[in-house]
Design goal:
It is globular, with a radius of gyration of 11 Å. The chain has four helices and no strands. The protein is mainly α.
C-alpha cells in the first residue's frame, strides 16, 4: 500500500459528532505519537492496544482498516 493508514483515516475527520469513525480520526489526528507512516495492521493494532484510548477503540480501527485494505490493498 502506498498510502498510510493515517492519511486514509484522516478522510473521516470532520464527520458527524456521533460517528465513531469521525471521533477516531479526530483523536488520531491529535495523537502526536500515532505511527503516521505505517501501513501494516499488526503494528497499528499493537499501538492502539498500548495507547488504550477510549476514543480509538479496536472495533472502530478494525472497521477502518478493512475499508483501507479494500481501497488500497
Amino acid at each position: 500500500m502506498d498510502r498510510s493508514f493515517y492519511r486514509f483515516a484522516l478522510s473521516y475527520r470532520g464527520g458527524p459528532k456521533g460517528d465513531a469513525k469521525a471521533v477516531f480520526a479526530e483523536r488520531m489526528f491529535h495523537d502526536s505519537s500515532f505511527p503516521r507512516e505505517e501501513t501494516a495492521f499488526d503494528p497499528l493494532s499493537r499501538y492502539l492496544e498500548d495507547a488504550a484510548d477510549p476514543d480509538m477503540p479496536s472495533i472502530v480501527f478494525d472497521e477502518l482498516y478493512a475499508i483501507y485494505e479494500e481501497r488500497f490493498g
